[in-house]
Amino acid sequence: MVIKKKLNIIIFGATGSIGSFLLKKYFEKNHNLLLFIKEKKKINNLIKKYKSNESQIVKYEKLDFNNPNDFKKKFKKNKNFIKKTSIIINTVGVQGEIKNFFTLNLEKFYQVFKINFFSQVLLFKNIYQYIKLNKNMLIIMFSGGGVSGQRQNFSPYVLSKIALVKLVEILALEFNNKNIRINAISPGIINSKMTRLILKENKNVGFKELKKIKKEIVKSKKSLEKIYNLINLLSKKKGKQISGKIISSRWDRFDKWNSKDIKRLISYDLFTLRRNQKK
Prior knowledge:
Number of helices: 10
Order of helices and strands: EHEHEHHEHEHEHHHEH
CATH superfamily: NAD(P)-binding Rossmann-like Domain
Strand content: 5-15%
Oligomer: single chain
Structural class: alpha/beta
């Protein structure tokens, strides 16, 4: 699947495993890019590799994801780019402590929610004024392991991601402009900083999870390609009816979906956190 039309694409968190992979892909396809990154040092490193040219815009912004005023300032500065954007991708997230719930540090617990959930609330509250009239926009957020199943000792991460997935579902209903679609992707196991930390500090990680990670991490490159392919599907005509869903790029056979599959997907509570039932 290849996006042929030149698009404006925004990536929040373009330096992590997923963000940097998608940045490289979209840059090679000659799309215009607006990249929001937390650390100035990482921006400087990226500028050496990805620069604007006569046919392509690449813009960088340092953003404090916990500062409402910084969101307002940076979005206002880039409002012309944002208004013409076709895809927004947000990969920002932290894992937090890997511990039994009753031994967690509450301040650290709260910090995970600040990044994984409340920063996303700030994003939407501040960007909506610039995208509300958009005629064709796809927003991609990222779910995480344990959102739709059990995952012991990861409660800060899992609970904050569940809140995010429900926000995705609510926004899909409450965007007054139905040309704006939003979905959450569950990426599976990626060779990321989070995953490497689990392998390094694994005393509170179950044996089954460690075994699964070691088995799946070698497939990380394929998993990243599947994320890219799923975003492409959701951005095209075939996927334009899909919104408010949580879709696994690793396990869901989206590449095999036909029109009947998609009609069934949007007619039932499939790919949500609710029990399946017809709408």
